[in-house]
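Re: the request from the purification team.
They wanted to know what the chain is likely to look like in 3D before they choose a buffer screen. I agreed to run a prediction and write the result into the notebook, where they can find it.
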Amino acid sequence: MRAAMTRPALPLRKKLLFALVPLLAVLLVLELVARVLRAPLHFGSFRELRVDQVKRGYPAVHHDRLGYVPRADFAGDDNHWGTRVTIDADGFRSNGAPPPPGRPIIAVGDSFTFGDQVDDDETWPAYLERRLQQPVKNAGVFGYSLTQAILRAEDVLERVPAEWLVVSLIPDDINRSELAKRYAPVPWFDVVDGALVLRNVPVQDTSDPDELRQRRFKDILGHSALLDAVLAHVAQRWWIVDQKEVRAHPPGKGAEIALLLVDRVAATCRGRNCRVMFVLQGEESTPAADAVLVRAREKGLIALDLVAAFRAELARDPDAKRRLFAGHMTPEGNAWVAEHVAAAIQGAR
């Protein structure tokens, strides 16, 4: 019998090629799947969407004093939650209805005030306006610290002669006041001889060439949706955390700053014939947040503890958390907040 013919061994280069082709095909499919699931029409750096608040899909623009603000004259669902968001010409979130007559209420705070996860007419300032039949300007901004919320209040009060200023906060807003950067550079206060001194203003624009050079390498890699997703989990600190948050103060300093911010806003409103209410929101409180409410009462301001109200609601109804919270407040949760704020305002008149 003739000896069986044997094929010549493949060169190493061809072996590698045959191995890489299916691997690259799998990676290409995974990349396409990652893009479709995350942002099919985004062609920039996916990492940038994680670390830059102004570019994470929210309707925001750079602001020299506040870091960033809602983009005026915006309307659409091009935002992180895919909800209907309308920003009016003055930078306030609209509720879609003509404002009633009267002297307005100004609401400032973070995403709980802005209304992340709900449509324009489902934020608590929108419910409050309908409840009181009085104009309510929603000046809340996603991601804000208590520092930014108070600075925003000062800017708005220069333009709007308000009857009430409602400052909403969650406990983490106090921690955020310890940061010089959170997704984007932000203003922060130093404490010098017991007084607040504003730092980091004008705030650096995230499109500044020096800032861009520092993150160019990572953002080049971040153009891959798949690579960004992997590195965000296996090398989170190197990939995003070190750039997402930069500290101005050690942990705990925010508690002192928060009390001085209460004093500051009380002084700001004293000469404007504008009453002030602090509203604590969220599921759990902290000693620092409780201290803010105590200081507000000491200054003659209204202090509304909705964390305590929620705990009482939860004791009555075990389903209360599901009804009121979905990360942020649900539409029902925002209506619940508005009812409490309205009752406090009416009770103080």
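For the purification team: The CA atoms of residues 195 and 260 lie 7 Å apart.
Please add any questions underneath this entry.
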